[in-house]
User: What shape does this take?
Amino acid sequence: MLLKCIVMMLIAHLVLVSAFSFEAWSQNNFQGTSKTYTQRGTFKPGFTIKSYRWDSPSNDGCCVKMCNDGNDVGDWCPSHSNGLPSSDFNEVVIGCNDEQLVCT
Assistant: This one.
């Protein structure tokens, strides 16, 4: 019975952690080509990101770092969106808990 409870708690935690999403658009104000990322990792959408939406459930421990040609241009842990960011970027790095978020 204890093992079953532990397995259920682990599954619930994994579902919660994977509930984040990052949406990127090629134009300001959420227009143009878009890509959505729902997994941890480093992603290059193939276009310059000019607006974005980061949706991360409260206290899930996940964050996103935005990078432009290997340079850090910002990061968010709580949910955030911006239709006209001060810097364009071409890479996002998503991680949770103690994962290092490093621009490449």
